[in-house]
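Entry 14. Ran structure prediction on the chain below.
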Amino acid sequence: MTLASSSGNESASRSLAQFATTHWSIVLAAGDSASPGSQEALEKLCRTYWFPLYAFARRKGHSPDDAQDLTQGFLAHLIENHFFARAVPERGKFRSFLLGAFKRFTRDRDRAQLAQRREVSSNSFPWTVPKQSNGSARTPAMRQIPRAFMNTNGP
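Output, structure tokens:
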């Protein structure tokens, strides 16, 4: 690959990663499930914004597979929750609305995964306090704490 073709690929990739100017008529049609063009509008919005959302997730450090899963999950979430019906032109740019929702979606997903990892690790670690042979719980004896930590007169 030559340098010229490499920079051409970067330029094409960069333009795909940018959020396209939104045609509100498409967003509004996608949000109106009674509209005859609703399904077509939804498909167009998903095709238009899939790569910019994916690229955003990659820039935030997600692996290619994870970014794909995030993007697909987010778009499915939008459709299931009638997200496009809540978009209002008077509130500003659709891409800002979409990106804000994507950030919240990824944050919530990351928190859920962290909580799940904590739950798994807490279930696999014994949290009981070991007992001594006489049946009492083991606690550190005061004589084992260094005197420097016990100085109450200050430094």
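The two ends are 66 Å apart (CA to CA). Will compare against last week's run tomorrow.
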